[in-house]
Amino acid sequence: SYGESIKDGIYPYGSLEKSIDVIIEHANRLEKKVRSLIQLNKMEYLLDDCPEGDNLNMSEVIDKVLLSLKVIRPEISFETNIDKDVRFHGDEDPWRIVVENLVDNALRYADSKIILELSPGELKVSNDGKQIDADRKAKLFKPYEKGSDGQFGLGLSIVYKVVTTYGYKVEAENLPDGVCFRVWREVSKKELRAIQKERKKEEREQLRTNKLLKQETNQGNSTSGS
After folding, report:
1. pLDDT (tens digit, 9 = 90+) per residue, 166-219?
2. Which of 4, 8, 31, 78, CA to CA, is 20 to 30 A from 111?
3. Are 21 and 15 in contact, with CB atoms under 8 Å apart?
């Protein structure tokens, strides 16, 4: 093994420092594979117990993921176009893993920018890295598919498993200046009208609440001034 070779004063990659770097890289890859396998096994029981209805606020899930992942490559800029009250079907943990894996994948290939967009029934994660060739695109969501950086992974296959289990679709699209991963579910006109109606209702309630708070504040000010 590499460790035994170094112990015997033999450096497989020319120098002690370079050989240790290679060992660390292999260890990191192994750790990532183990973590992915744990995630995949975890999915099996998380997806068995699925709540009814679209109750998960996806904007909150995205906020949590970005808070933890943006620091990985601080030189990459993030742009977001997030509808703050989009509800998805499913539990938080599986969807959080979906967003984590999509953002992690984007961080791996982005040149300078990642864009996240969220609208009713649709999530998009784009990056300005190089496009995906046709052969790889056809196998993208299969387990242990080798990426263009030479890494094998389960991340996108986990994304596919969660998304399709919850009744959504996922695909990768080449853009003129990068790649976009799109997760979506067809939203009927009836569902869209219901979403818009609910949103207007919440806006009216918020305006009413703000008005009451303003009245209470004014009353408090007049009382203290008398």
Report:
1. 889 999 999 999 999 999 987 665 665 676 677 677 678 878 887 887 777 776
2. 31
3. no
